[in-house]
Amino acid sequence: MSTIKEKLLGQEKLTGMSATTVYNPSGNVTGIARFVTICNISATSVSFDLYLNGSASTYNDTCALYYNKVLAAHDTHEIAGHYILNGSTAFLAAKSYTANAITVTVNGLEIS
After folding, report:
1. CATH classification of the domain holding 72
2. Per residue in 49-92, pLDDT tens?
3. Are residues 49 and 94 in contact, defined by beta-carbon separation less than 8 angstroms?
């Protein structure tokens, strides 16, 4: 019988300017990212990318959900959906174009 848990799947402050994995389910777990919150904690507008890759930790425009999206100073962007990540080869990642300016929070479900 499957177990379903609603939980905080991941939360990261993007400290660099390269893609950072925010959520990667373990081997036999299916994760469903239902809410992704992206917060600009800086006093200037910044750009970010959001990636969903179902088979590798490679992040580029072929797996971008958002690409070079501008977020105003001290603004928050909320995304509601059902992004399915099957097992340890699936990744949800984000990139900020300004270091230490963005936090990403992912809430959803895990099925095991």
Report:
1. 2.60.120.220
2. 999 998 877 898 899 999 999 999 999 999 999 999 999 999 99
3. yes
* Residues of the chain above pLDDT 70, percent: 100
CA–CA distance, 45 with 71 (Å, rounded to integer): 6
Q: What is the mean pLDDT of residues 36-41?
A: 98
Backbone phi, psi, residue 10, to 5°:
-175, 155
Asked whether the beta carbons of 36 and 104 are under 8 A apart, the reply is: yes
Please say whether the beta carbons of 57 and 87 come within 8 A. Answer: no
Distance CA 58, CA 49 (A): 13
Q: Residue 69 belongs to what domain range? A: 4-111
Token pair 């890759």 is found at 53
